[in-house]
Design goal:
227 residues; alpha/beta; Collagenase (Catalytic Domain); 7-stranded mixed β-sheet; two-stranded antiparallel sheet; 4 helices; globular
């Protein structure tokens, strides 16, 4: 019941604070900086993104290795539960062609594809993760698909499944619009997360970003290659 009355107030307060998109503008204490700060000429700019209602459910293709499909389904269920009004929804699909998000159980390529921004995370001994965002030079378009890489260590490694689970939820957090890392080790969206579920601060931030107009639009340039 508290969330029903809090959500509109949260949206209004956040809109008042962040509407100008000034990267120097302080955030509220119950939010962290989720926007991606990127070079823009001689200065810097921020990218703010969330999926439009017309894009939902977000289509997610997952490589069938290391229990990743089941872990990604748990990740989808976890983030969907954050949103009272179903602002974010996703579903797994069996065909990578046309997917909005592609998840691979492999190391991220040594070099991100041309134009892509890489968000590295979960640099644990058991596994690591990365998300590639392909942003247009004018910072107006997010070219789909978003590519997620979950890299499991080979062999019988203790805590591997726990690491894969929290890393999968973390990387999906990037794909839903949390482009920056939290500075707090107690948050799931910390760069090297230890917690397995979104914290209250993660949840507040995830909710707030879906109540602001995005600065960038998701577009698809053409067919998605499997590799």
């Amino acid at each position: 019941m508290m969330r029903v009355t809090r959500a509109p107030a949260l949206a209004l307060a956040t809109l008042t604070l962040l509407a100008c998109g000034d990267i120097a503008e302080p955030l509220r204490n119950d939010l962290y900086e989720w926007r991606l700060i990127v070079p823009s000429g001689a200065t810097e700019d921020t990218i703010h993104f969330h999926w439009a209602r017309s894009d939902l459910p977000v289509r997610v293709w997952v490589e069938d290795v290391e229990n990743l499909p089941e872990l990604m389904q748990r990740a989808i269920d976890t983030w969907e539960a954050v949103y009272l009004y179903r602002e974010f929804q996703a579903q797994r699909v069996s065909d990578s062609a046309g997917a909005d998000v592609i998840v691979r159980g492999a190391p991220a390529p040594a070099k991100a594809q041309l134009g892509a921004t890489r968000l590295n995370s979960a640099l644990a001994p058991e596994c690591s993760g990365a998300t590639d965002l392909d942003v247009s030079p004018d910072l107006s378009e997010l070219r789909l698909p978003i590519r997620i890489f979950i890299d499991p260590v080979t062999g019988d490694v203790p805590n591997l499944q726990r690491c894969l689970g929290l890393t999968t939820i973390h990387e999906l957090g990037h794909a839903l619009g949390i482009f920056a890392h939290s500075p707090n080790p107690t948050d799931l969206m910390y760069a090297d997360p230890e917690v397995e579920q979104p914290s209250l601060l993660d949840r507040e931030t995830a909710e707030a970003l879906y109540h602001l107009p995005p600065t960038i639009t998701a577009v698809r340039a053409g067919p998605v290659p499997l590799e």
